[in-house]
Inverse folding.
């Protein structure tokens, strides 16, 4: 009988690699699920706050803090009122627009300067978050859509707070 080490080691090694691969995959899925749960919690908390009567400024502040955390921002501010200028913009579909053209965020990173994230409700512009991303960060489209939805909650709170005659 001939003993071949390869015949004994290879099946065990293959099984070990499969188990290790599965363990890494499960760990990755748990990380994604935890992140998704965090995003859902933010959206839920903001929706509850935006439905509370008389709290639009609190919603704007909460959304700003959540945007800073979600998008890894270096800074943010909120501007009420009219649109001025043509800064880069994070659009409703999660795309970044620069000079009215799509910007390849994954390849080029965030554009320089402040980026506009509009807060609107019922087709009415309520204001905008001017965000300043941290260098080297590139959030996924999913994360950018969470940010857009958060801004929409701020818009809804501001729209609800407007006098009925202004709507």
């Amino acid at each position: 009988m001939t003993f071949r080490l390869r015949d004994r080691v290879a099946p065990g090694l293959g099984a070990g690699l499969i188990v290790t691969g599965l363990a890494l995959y499960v760990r990755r899925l748990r990380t994604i699920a935890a992140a998704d749960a965090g995003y859902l919690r933010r959206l839920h908390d903001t929706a509850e706050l935006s439905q509370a009567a008389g709290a639009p400024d609190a919603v704007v502040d909460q959304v700003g803090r959540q945007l800073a955390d979600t998008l890894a921002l270096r800074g943010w501010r909120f501007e009420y009122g009219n649109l001025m200028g043509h800064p880069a913009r994070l659009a409703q579909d999660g795309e970044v627009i620069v000079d009215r053209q799509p910007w390849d965020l994954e390849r080029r990173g965030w554009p320089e300067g402040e980026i506009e994230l509009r807060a609107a409700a019922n087709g009415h512009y309520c204001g905008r978050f001017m965000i300043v991303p941290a260098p080297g960060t590139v959030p996924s489209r999913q994360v950018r859509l969470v940010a857009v939805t958060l801004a929409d909650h701020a818009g809804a709170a501001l729209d609800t707070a407007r006098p009925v005659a202004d709507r």
Notes: The helical segments are 5-51, 56-70, 105-108, 141-161. The mean pLDDT is 77.
